[in-house]
Design a protein that fits this description.
By secondary structure, this protein is mostly beta strands. It has one domain. About 10% of the residues lie in helices and about 35% in strands. Strand 3 and strand 4 form a beta hairpin. The chain starts with 10 loop residues before the first helix and ends in a 7-residue tail after the last strand. It binds zinc ion. The site of zinc ion (ZN) has 8 residues, from loops.
Length: about 90
Amino acid sequence: MSSEVDGNALGGDLAEIFAVDLTGAAVTCGGCKTVSAVAALLVWGPAPGLVARCPECEDVVLRLVRAPGQAWLDLRGAVSVRIPLPAPE
Ligand SMILES: [Zn+2]
């Protein structure tokens, strides 16, 4: 049985996920469904932010804008992001 809780329930998992180097994560392009490593994306920037495009179809996969004390990560162009995590101890 599932129940609805607020976003604080995501805190532990998200802290773990975003504490890893994401350049090895596998992004699935929303346009052509090609799976690419983040490191293989085509990136324009830095101002006003970084825009990463699919190396196959050049659709925008993600946008990242930094400001003092905060960051905006827009993943609308990605179907999914598969993030490698350290093996449990
Ligand atoms: Zn693509």
